[in-house]
Amino acid sequence: MATKKVIAICQSGGEFVTNKDGSLSYTSGEAYAIDIDQQTQLNDFKLEVAEMFGCNVDTMSIKYFLPGNKKTLITISKDKDLNRMINFLGDSATVDVFIMTEEAVARNISNMPASRSSRTTVSEAVAPLIDVAIDTTHTDTPMEMDVVNCTPISTSRPVIAIEDKNHKAALQWENTITGVNQRFSSFSEFREALHKYSIAHGFAYKYKKNDSHRVTVKCKTQSCPWRIYASRLSTTQLICIKKMNTNHTCDGAVVKAGYRATRGWVGSIIKDKLKESPNYSPKDIANDIRREFGIQLNYSQAWRAKEIAREQLQGSYKDAYTQLPFFCDKIKETNPGSFATFTTKEDSSFHRLFVSFHASISGFQNGCRPLLFLNHTPLNSKYRGMLLAATAADGDDGVFPLAFAVVDSESNDNWNWFLNELKSAVSTSRKITFIADFQNGIKEALAEVFGDEGYHGYCLRYLTDKLNKDLKGQFSHEARRLMVSDIFAAAYAPRLEAFERCADSIKGISPEAYNWVVQSKPEQWANAFFPGSRYNLMTSSFGEMFYSWVSEAHELPITQMVDVLRGKMMELIYTRRVESNQWLSRLTPSKEDKLQKEIATSRSLQVLLAHGSIFEVRGESIDIVDIDHWDCSCKEWQLTGLPCCHAIAVFECIGRDPYEYCSRYFMAESYRLTYSESIHPVPNVDRPIQSESLQLGVIVSPPPTKRRPGRPKMKQAGFIDVVKRQLQCSKCKGLGHNKKTCKDL
Asked: What is the pLDDT of residues 506-520, one digit of tens each?
């Protein structure tokens, strides 16, 4: 009888998709045609397939659909199975054959904890793969199939045949233990190999003997005979497996997978990925470990593993405090003129750290306005804390970090200490204007440390937030929004009459709010009264760029966090120095633009000489300009440091150069002086030489405060929503509740 020939359409690289009727279809991938007949041997068929698709013969699995049933796949595992497939086809000349490699199986199944069991439950999108044994002795009569679970298979819980090799762990580690006479360089290497071996083969073990001379291990299941014995070879340091019973009679799947995945082991696995992706979340860690190694971790286990991996990468939080004396000395050694000081409590635990680099101090003294913004942001590292910072504004209104400190909390004592250190570092004869909060001890600390040597301008953000808190529940959202808008307008108003108009507007909304504004010391926040120079910069959140750097590094150990900030500042100074060397204008770019706009406006104004250096300028209003005292009745010249349009009209009239009347802090030359010095790298931050650290003789231990449990708040203090919408009852129109909780009903 002639041999029956069939064309096998071999498909690989795609995936199965479950249709609405429960049938399966194969999508994507590539296909090749191979001629087979009843004389074809399975091994020859596999070799040809492997050559076509470039896959491994040993890990290949071949499937085809049961004729007339697109819901069931049959596995070809021996020559008889291949022959049966040809007999199944009848008159059909082709057959679809699916080549399942390990990668394809990983895409099509739901990975479960590693198990030696041949049956696992998968998601309903997975094809039910069935091992079939069929008697084909009489091919002319209907064939009886001995199909595993021959009842219709529910697509909600299909049963599949799956081996541990579907897991990455089995592929990598199934042969880390090969048997008797295998040798290792140390017991730790043997224990590591054993751990990987147990994960790959899906069982748990326990030590019967575990010392420096011998190790005896048995399967954790009581009745299972698997065990291994290793000891040191005499006259050598090598460890050799002397005995091993490889027989398992237990079902490793009953052992909790988490038992085999210690925090240290998971940490070592995820370390490289965490280095590439610092925001690698515990949820993603758990998913990756389950998918790659078949081990189920809960969120807590994944989080602890991440902490261990982070410590392996970044060093110990505790060691970082020990390294502080060394670190501070290195900062001062590599950046002469810098300040890096710390204090400890009586028990030698960390208390406070202050850092200000010489390049920052020099830049502030030589090129920046005497204007500093004080603010704070919480640190969510293991030992928590608060970062206090002083930032300046360069001539182009860019953020220029001057100094920062790590303290345990925001308090009068800590602000007092920080400001004293800042005063020592800056040591300037200029009167400095500070834009800051007026709560949490900062107001008292400024008055005590700087006194008459500085001005304290209230931050408008904190001021309006205080208004909202004090008058909470008394006004609708719209009324509060209007009051906040009026307060900002009053603060920016250059003259008394404009301030009073804004105050009257608040009074029209609420006399109580008006009284609050009057009692809030407008001389500390309103341009019309403020004695210092704040250049129309009204909020302490001006340094937001610096605080964004802190938010990126705040979970690092303290020395590394400081070094990350140092690196950011070093790069900022270099970048701005290079950019400023390309400028051609006399002023910084932003100030040059403003001056040109004022020049354009001045062309329509009329100038009249009053007497001496005083001129009258007419336009939409009549303003008086005194060029000798750099003063205009509109007050814009004094507030901004740039000549207003009225002053420029006078300069054009008498032939003066407007640039000669601009604040020196806005000149491009002053900007270059700000960034003329460099911050230098600090070596050995990650791993300082141990002997150098010990020679200092100062031991600093971590602070007693640790991070609270739970997810930390990511919103930084200081960046406050000015107005939050308040509940208003639709029944009684009252505030602070809704109709469900209304007491009038």
From this structure: 999 888 889 999 999
- Collapsing DSSP to helix, strand or coil, 224 comes out as coil
The region, left, alpha or beta by phi > 0 then psi within -120 to 50, assigned to residue 688 is beta
Return the half-sphere exposure (C-beta side, CA atoms, 13 A cut-off) of residue 35: 3
What whole-number distance in Å separates Cα of residue 602 and Cα of residue 531? 28
Strand 69-76 to strand 61-66: parallel, antiparallel, or no bridges (unpaired)?
antiparallel
Q: Which helix (H) or strand (E) holds 315?
A: none
Angle between helices 460-470 and 477-492 (to 10 degrees): 150
Q: How far apart are CA 510 and CA 507, in angstroms?
A: 5
Closest CA to 623 of 610, 612, 641, 642: 610
Please name the residues in contact with 318: beta carbons below 8 A apart, sequence gap of 6 or more: 701, 702
The strand pair at 350-356 and 61-66 is best described as: unpaired
Q: Is 671 exposed, middle or buried (0-12, 13-18, 19+ CB in 10 A)?
A: buried
**Cβ contact 169:294 at 8 Å:** yes
Average pLDDT value for residue range 343-366: 93
- pLDDT, tens digit, for every residue of 120-161? 322 333 333 334 333 333 333 333 333 333 333 333 322 223
Question: Distance of alpha carbon 590 from its chain centroid, rounded?
Answer: 32
Q: What is the mean pLDDT of residues 103-127?
A: 36
Sheet holding 183-184, edge to edge: 183-184, 239-245, 227-232, 214-219, 205-210
